[in-house]
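Dephospho-CoA kinase: structure tokens wanted.
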Amino acid sequence: MLVVGLTGNIGSGKSSVARMLQEMGATVIDTDRVARDVVAPGTPGLQKTVACFGRQVLKNDGTLNRPLMAQIVFNDPAALARLNAIVHPEIRSRVAAAIADYKRSGSTPLLVIEAPLLIETGMHKMVDRVWLVTVDPRIQVQRIIARNHTTAEQARKRISAQMPQEDKIPYADRIIDNSGSPEKTLQQVRQIWSDDIERPEAQA
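Answer:
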């Protein structure tokens, strides 16, 4: 049994790598999905968010207006810090519970915590190993433009808002370069699976 934190910056293809690992037999927890769950209607997370930012952040159906929330915090570091102070402890709590459940059940050979902010939030301390998905910066910009239908300038602004990729490398036990074809990435993932999951000493 192994718990891995899988991280990578926007446009790195981290989610594609997570899908590959899932197809190979891993259990994957997507913290972006957990982040949505912790602010679902009726949760303490949503109640705290409304108390902090006002009812304007709610849609008519009582769910969080995520695009509006993103707009509020994107250019306001203080607002982002307030939101993170609400959401991140809730996410950590759910991830910790999932890791504890996995270690009790051991239903699959690998648990992957897919988290873009794994290192920034300190969640890398909760996992056994950190796997970092990297990408060539030029390809990263192209992917963001294609995926988000945005301009190169907006893509670079999103990249610059994150912890630099090179600053994450020292935290990584494994690096997966996703600058090439999906086949090349899959080849790397299979090799890491063989080295870290299939070897008996990896299970110790």
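The chain has two domains: 1-26+108-204, 33-106. The chain has a mean pLDDT of 91.

Cheers.
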